[in-house]
Amino acid sequence: MDQDDLLGRIQTTARLHGRNESRRVTATVLGVMRDLLPASAYRRLTGPLPADLRLPPPEPGRIVEIIDCRRFLTRVADRLYADDAAFLTRVVLAELNAGARGTTPSDLAHLVPSDLRPLFRSRPEQPWQALPAPSAQTFRRSGTEGPSS
């Protein structure tokens, strides 16, 4: 996965100030996921990512902590010192789902508690596009045609 492309999409979608902030948000979300996922699943997820976004994998055989959605988002908020952790997490997971080669967060959704699955399966929003304006047509009212002969 191209790091500049991923960080650029996260920066644009999350309305962040620069690539360093995008990198910090992405690494934080991946770091909280590291606490939640088994070591082998985390390695598959972060394998194609650039090295500076990957944290060292957790030790194999460790006990995986089961946390719910609220606790997951609280950890992200505490590490980022940000109030909009749910939005930032959704943006990172959606962009990882959209552009990742190999294993995506969506593929690992079955490994997390049920209230986190919609977040792990999120996709980027489609940009809004207006429908083309209908062509100008003139209509006649019925019964207002000219005199009959």
Automatic annotation (TrEMBL):
Residues 135-149 have a biased composition (Polar residues). Gene3D superfamilies: Uncharacterized conserved protein DUF2267. Residues 124-149 are annotated as: Disordered. InterPro entries: DUF2267 (IPR018727), DUF2267_sf (IPR038282). Signal peptide: none annotated. This is DUF2267 domain-containing protein.
